[in-house]
Structures are given as C-alpha cells and as structure tokens.
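Progress report, Aim 2. The chain analyzed during this reporting quarter is listed below.
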Amino acid sequence: MKNILSILTLLFIHFSAEAQYYFRGEVKNSLQQPITNAKITLLSSSILYSSGSGGKFGFYSTLKADTILIEVAGYERLKIGIEYSDYHQLVLQKIGTPLSAAPKLISSVRGYSAKDKTEQIIRSESYSSLAENMFVNARSHAATSVALHTDKASYSNIRRFLNKNMLIPPDAIRTDEVLNYFNLAYRTPEEGHDFHFEYQLTECPWNEKNHLLWLSLSSRKIPDSAIPPSNLVFLVDVSGSMDMPNRLPMLKIAFKQLIDNLREKDTISMVVYGSFVGLWIPPTSGIEKDKIKKRIDELEPGGATPGESGIVTAYQVAKNQFIEGGNNRVIIATDGDFNVGQKNEKSLETLIGEHRDLGIYLSCLGVGMGNYKDSKLDALSKMGNGNFAYLDNLKEAEKVLVKELTKTLYTIGDNAALTIEFNADQVADYRLIGYENRERILKDTQAVFEGGEIGPGHTSLVVFELTLDDHTKDSKLPLAEVNFQYMLPYDSTVLYNKYPVSNQVVAFNKIPREYQLLTNLTIFTQLLKQNKYVPRMKWNDIYKMAEPLIDKEDQTEVEYLFLLDKTRKIYNRYKGDLRKHWNK
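Predicted structure tokens for the chain:
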C-alpha cells in the first residue's frame, strides 16, 4: 500500500512540475472584436483548445515558451510563438483582399457582362452605370446573395427630378432604395427575436407566365432607453457651391432639430471644409444644446472644396472620441463635389475602409442639384458600411435626421445578407429586381461580396421574378431556402437563420395591400428605367393600379400617387429609347 501511495505521489509531483506554465490571452479580428470558438492547437503537444467568451483563452504547457496555431473559418491561419509571462492579444486577418481596399458587391448575381461606360454625367451630376440583372438559370446557378441596407436616396432624388418636370437619368433609379423609402410590410418580431421573416409568392402583373417572390425581413425597434451612446462627427461642406437655400441653410435648420433629440451621453462634433478645414464644434455633450445650435447658426458658405482633408480630420476626431460599444459615425453632408481628383480617389476609399474596420462607420447626406455627385456619395457610404440619403427639401431633411434618426444612424445588424437557394426542380429561371451592381465594380477582379447594415424598425425587401418549372404545381418540395446571416454590433459571431419557402401561389388580389403597392412601386422603377422585361405595362395602367391601394392617411403614399400622375404626364410625351436622350 505504501508503495502505491509513493508511486501516486511521485506521479502527481511529476505532472505538477511539468504543467506549471500557464499561457493566456485573447483572439480578435481587425475590428478589435473578440472571436469565439477559435481553434487553437498547442504544437508542442498537439492538444487542441478553443477561445471562449470574449475571445479569451488559457492553457498549461510544460514549456516556458511554446508555439500555437490558430484557425478560424474565413480568417488567415496564424502560427505564432508565445511566452507564458505575457498576456497575448492576437489579431486574425480575413482571407483575401483586405476589406479596407476591396470594392463591394451588393449582390452576387453576375449573369451579365460589364459595359465600357462606368459613369453617366447629367448636367454636371454623376451617376454610376448600373449593370441590369438578367434572368439566371436555376439549375446552373441555384444560389444568389443580396447585401441588405437601409439606403433611401434614390426615391427622394427621383422626386426632385419630377418636381422639376424633368426626365430621370436611368442610373439614378435604384429599385431597392425606392422600396426602402416606404418601409411597407413591417412586422414586429416576436419577443426575444431581432428579426421577423415572411414571404409572398404571387402572380406577376406584367407577365402572366411568371411569378413574383417577395422576401421581407423586419428588424426590431429599439426603445430610446436602450439606444447606445453616440459619437457623431458631422463633416459639413461649407464651400461656395453650398450657398443655395436647399443646401447649407436647409441643413442648418435640420441639424438644430436633430440636436433636440440628443442626450447627455451623446457626443457631437462638427468639422467643416470650404475656404478652410477645421474643427467647428469640438466634441460636446448633447445636453449643451444652445451652445451647439449657436455654432450651427454661425456656419457660412464660401471657398473651395478640399473634401479629402475634411474627411481625414473628421475621422481623427471620431477616433479620439471613440465610444466602446457605442455608435461611432462620421456623417458627410455635401453636394458631393469633393475635388480630390482621380489620383486620390483610391486612397480616400482605403482611408474610409480602414476606419470602418475599426468600428467607425460613414453615412452620406446628399443635397442640392446640378453639382450633385450621386455616384461618389453612394460609393463612399457603401465603403464606409453606412447609409446614403438624398435631402431634396426641408421636409425630407427632417424625416431623415429627426423622425427616422434611429433607423438611419443606429445599427441592429452588421454584415447582413440573404442567400436564396432555389430548388431547380421548382424554379427554371429567376431575376433579382434591384440590388444592381455598378459596372465598374463588376470589372474589378478584387471585388468581394459583403453584407450591409440594417437599422432598427426597418423592413428589408427583396423581390424576384420567377419562371416556374412546368411540374411545380404537382410538387410538395420547397420552392427555395433562404439563409439570413448577420452579426450584432461589436460582435464577431456570425448568426444564421434559415427559412423554407413553399411553392404555394397566392392570387395577386389576395396578397396583403402592402405587397400590391410594393409591386406597383417596382413597376414604377422598371418603367422609368425602360426595363425590357415590362414592355406591356403603361403609365396609365400603373396609375389605375395604384389609386385604390393608397392609404389616404399616409402622406408618403398620397405623395407617391401625386408623383405617379406627374410622371405619366411627363413620360407620355416621349417615345422610343430614352437612354438616347441622356446620351446625346
């Protein structure tokens, strides 16, 4: 018995002596967000560990210095030597082109060829040429991904043209942004859930042989008490081009109304660029409303537009005031004329991408006309993982900056995307409507698909035109499977939800009113673009279709009917290919 106890004691002493060095640290990504469940192999013993909550890890080794191999799907492998006496903060880089430099696709459908033209210039306004989404064979390419976002700029820009009795440049028309503007079909998610998903499969009004598939994802609303503290840095263009009533004076009024909604825990700063670049309002608590408003009142336009210098300064302020776990955002308000030149365009996008990776997002507010650079602001907001709105009048400025502040400036889901995988035994061909990529990006071999940003209380909508297989009606198999992925703000964990879609077709006049009106809005954009897939639809047809669908108590819908009437009067005067009109 004594011999057994002696052997056990010696073994205990032996193992205790060997396992005396404790290694610890944490694994993060380039955003300084913790990575949980990272696979960590201790190479001296081949023992496998993993990072836990907050990306933290800890283990014993018989050596004072050892080597570990860290592996996580989607990230580059990291092999590194570590010492037990240090606390190790290890950063993993995403595989492939750095996020800060790679152009972003908003959908992965590539069933078309990029053209030579990449930008359309209309009376000094610029619009990126969009590559139209074609029908895709479901058997050859069953899956397509869509980056969700809350951009709404296209609709208010369309309204601006129509109110001037002008034709609209086709590349200024983005169907997904028009649908976003109305926020129709919103459904409150169940208790404890961030999102609510639903779909509608119905008849296609412009092609009786085809069907429409509507996908709707509603995000939960955030009560004021739960909104995180904000570090908002406004970058305001005060150059000479902003000296018009619907530019800087309009912004000043809207900014002062926004200030009324700020809290003590919110910080606001303002950088201006024009005749000079400088910090106009240093970081100030939202409780000091009179002080902030006084400085806003003192803004005066004049000078040139060194936009890049202003952005550099704004990011420096945002970085210095960074709130861990808060909403850190630079908001550009401009007519888009940065005057940075082609040489600096790439470095500007890289700068924005690098700060986005640190957790500082960029939103863009476009104003004015004639000098408006839609193509540039749209590109910058997507690079900055933010949103893009066009303010055509004071009412719209108040809507974006006051009434819908939480939907546009706060985030509930990062890197949000839907991947739709169609059942080729059910669907022959499909066409994604909207979410069109810029032709310049489609040509770029470094372009990557990345999800977008969703604000609270918002409905993200995706619509497909489908050609169903002849045997679909007899099949009990699902029509498609929808995979939704997103990340919570400041969390590297990717969350997944799956939703089956059945092949049960509902007659168009039986689907909810909201989806009928959404279909009308879709036809509206397709006719404006002279889309070849809706040749039989006429302006008078969609006006008659819209009339009974309008909620007379909803001013946004009433205004749409007014604009629709205006549109048919303007466009019925023109015959033939309107693109020839713009390309003269």
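DSSP finds 15 helices and 27 strands in the chain. The longest helix spans residues 2-18. These observations will guide the mutagenesis work planned for the next reporting period.
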